[in-house]
Write a structure and sequence with these properties.
The chain has no helices and 11 strands. It is mostly beta strands and about 120 residues long. A 6-stranded antiparallel beta sheet has the order 1-2-3-10-5-8, with no helix packed on it. A 3-stranded antiparallel beta sheet has the order 7-6-9, with no helix packed on it. Strands 4-11 form a two-stranded antiparallel ribbon.
Length: about 120
Amino acid sequence: MKSEADSNRPWGFFEILYDGSEAKVKRILVRPGGRLSLQRHRRRAEHWFVVQGEGTVTLDVREIAVKAGDAVDIPRGALHRILNNGSGDLIYIEVQTGDYFGEDDIERLADDYGRGSG
């Protein structure tokens, strides 16, 4: 498993809870005002379950308000991102399913922090 320090990002951090051949599970923390890149994946789908905080999920052209207890399914190939527009940390559990779970399966279309794909 990666340590928290290895998984720091400009918006917060993630930790890997499970990494198997059939799924990968992450705990993701997004700091207030943080926003992940607008991205899509060719080889995996994701299920997000919000456990703390509130935010806005972009899913293709829809904007979906989320709070603790809400879940969002991200189909393979769908454009998506999450924004923490609350005053505290936003934490969600991400379950990835598909045939590949590497970080290089990220195609970034827009990024607040100047990062490219992969």
